[in-house]
Amino acid sequence: MPKTALALLQLPPATTAAIEKLGADLAVARLRRKESLKTWAQRMGVSVPTLQRLEAGDPAVGIGIVATALWLIQRDGELGKLAAPEHDQGAIELDIREAVELGRARARASAEARTSARRPKA
User: Fold this and answer.
1) What is the pLDDT along the chain (122 residues), one digit of tens a residue?
2) Gap between the Cα atoms of 8 and 65, Å rounded
3) Conformation bin of residue 74: beta by default, left when phi > 0, alpha when psi is -120 to 50
4) What is the pTM for the complete model shown?
5) 42-81 burial by CB neighbour count: b if 16+ within 10 A, else e?
6) DSSP labels, the chain
7) Nearest to 74 by CA among 105, 33, 42, 112
8) Residues 6+ apart with CB under 8 A from 26
């Protein structure tokens, strides 16, 4: 089994659902513009079956094809924000935990320094 297929089989259910919703939303966008599968596929530079797979939420469709579909509906600008560091909640929480631990370590070191400075010298 190719690596890609295994990775796709391991997608979390919420991610699979989000990809399927994206595909359905792209289909709605095409239909609202009264574009046929054939015309839309030509504009994207893909085959009709590939466009159908995209609209069906197939996670194996390449990100470049997804980006092109988003470009056609003028939503490709959002791609640059998807993994922006300032929105990476997991990394932000890790940074905070590290800062808190550093603060505690410095406070302990400062308290120890004050305690040892107060002790009479023998």
Assistant:
1) 556 788 888 999 999 999 999 999 999 999 999 999 999 999 999 999 999 999 999 999 999 999 999 999 999 998 988 889 988 889 999 999 999 999 999 999 888 888 887 777 66
2) 17
3) left
4) 0.73
5) eebebeeebbbbbbebebebeeebbebbbebeeeeeeeee
6) --HHHHHHHT--HHHHHHHHHHHHHHHHHHHHTT--HHHHHHHHTS-HHHHHHHHTT-TTS-HHHHHHHHHHTT-GGGGGGTT-GGG-HHHHHHHHHHHHHHHHHHHHHHHHHHHHHHSPP-
7) 33
8) 54, 55, 69, 70, 73
